[in-house]
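Feature request, filed as a ticket because there's no other form

It would be nice if the structure record came with a short human-readable summary line next to the tokens. Right now we just get the raw output. Example of a typical job, pasted below so the devs can see what we mean:
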Amino acid sequence: MSIRLLEHMRDELIATGIVQNTPEFCRSWLGRSEGYIRVLRYHQIEPSVETLTICSNKLGYYAARLDRSEEKIRIVLVGLRGEESISMLCRRERMAV
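Raw output as currently delivered:
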């Protein structure tokens, strides 16, 4: 089951242009060699817990960055309406400008 999850994540990251191919996914998202998924398939074994943890942490990190970016955009849009200054909104939200 976990190998399917990794392959699905790889396919999604390739589709969105975040990674170009499987070797890049293995190196940058799993912290493993370029042929890691191929070896898993060949030996019919599941990925290690460590590998899944690394991938999970990266997903969490980038999800948090995306949330912060969306929050900053929201603050700027509210500020552009003129109800409050952007700097005041950022101070209230404890966010760096």
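Something like this underneath would help us a lot:
Residues 12 and 18 are 9 Å apart (CA to CA).
Residues 1-47 form one domain.
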